[in-house]
Protein 1
Amino acid sequence: MRLIPAELCRALAANAVRAGASERFDPPPLVKLFAPLDPATWLATELLADDDTMFGLADLGFGCPELGYFSLSEIAALRLPFGLRVLRDDAFASTVPLSRWAATARRCGAIPAAEAALAARHPHELPPGLPDG
């Protein structure tokens, strides 16, 4: 099973092309990856031409989410306790730009906390089922 389906990979790649053409491009994340039973979470907006390097917001659970590049193959290769692997949140959708995600996650200390805070302030910009404040 692929961690990210081809359709989403194409959308992430298109974002990478747009980002290369404009310094002001600030799309919402298209993909949320997370480690079950672990605080690690990644939000991705772009996939580079190598089909492995992603850009987005990475939170490894140390209280300091950071914007940057990360490897899809390395994330997919992670082996977690009890035979678990990193998963993609199929229900994740957002219209909130990545810069706002980053600012909120840094203020809250984690992407999951930022997700709850953004849902409370902007309930129509995140998928249903999250706290609505």
Protein 2
Amino acid sequence: MVFSFLKDKFSKKEEKSYDDITDLTVKNLDVGFIFDYETETWQVTAKNRYETDEGEYFEMEIKSSSDVCFLEPGDEDLHTWLITKKIPIGKIGGNVRAHIKKEQDPPDTITYDGVEYYLDASTDGHFFKDCEGEGDPFISWNFLDDSEKKQITIEQWGETEFEASTGLEVEEFRFMNILPASK
């Protein structure tokens, strides 16, 4: 009987309760939440986890009626978040994929949409889709523009699979009308 109680207690996902939904912030976002950003309403459709040498962080897939993006923490001291959107790696100037395959690293400078980006950091780790499973290994390189507000991230998955995304750092206060998932 005690075993049954413990099994039930630990096998069920805890449901979070939000007594005061007027006090929700972007830090509270979870799957199913909706919020307003810019002129659109967005819904959190997935939550993924990354483990790197620098630590662990979460990324949320968010969808509006016209777009799919990703949201992750930015600079905590500045209360910013990073909104990213996947782009074709072939749209980045030069043949970045071939450069990485040959040199095991990207070039120091890349160009996308007429803007130059400079290599800022690299990391490797594991990606956990929906925060589950064993995790897929990856390597990523971050590039920043002169303003350090825009970024390009190139990720390598295995020997030949690459993804790229463009991102913009935005202030936390720009996320409004946050509501929890309906039950």
Protein 3
Amino acid sequence: MFIISRCLLGVNCKYNGGNNLCEDVVEFSKGHSYVTICPECAGGLCIPREPAEIIGQSDGNEMPRVIDRNGIDRSAAFVRGAEISLQEVLDEAVRREEPLEGAILKARSPSCGIGMIYDGTFSGSLTPGDGIFARMLRERGIPLMSEEVFRREQ
């Protein structure tokens, strides 16, 4: 079973009320078992909402802070949403009696970004790091890829 970011399948859960539909991911999903997630919605953040970015990276023992464009700390909602999403995914894998094969997540997102995320300046600059949910999956050894890597690998 795969984990797929809902926005990549066309669900309007993106911060601006839109989505990040990726036809390559849609095609992939047609032939694979999957579960969809949006950790930001699971954490109680509304649609639309102010964009948010991770401020710095933690030392590995605690989650980094997530701040929205207005300077409001949204860390608790991001962590809560990631924890809820992770539990839903794990429960669904048990229910289906299927292993978690990997995750296809939205690149650069403060929840789902893999390897590179926005740097917290709201300038479009990137910095090495993972989003909150991606980090939780990585810690559990679940293979991760963004829709960008997915396109290159197909």
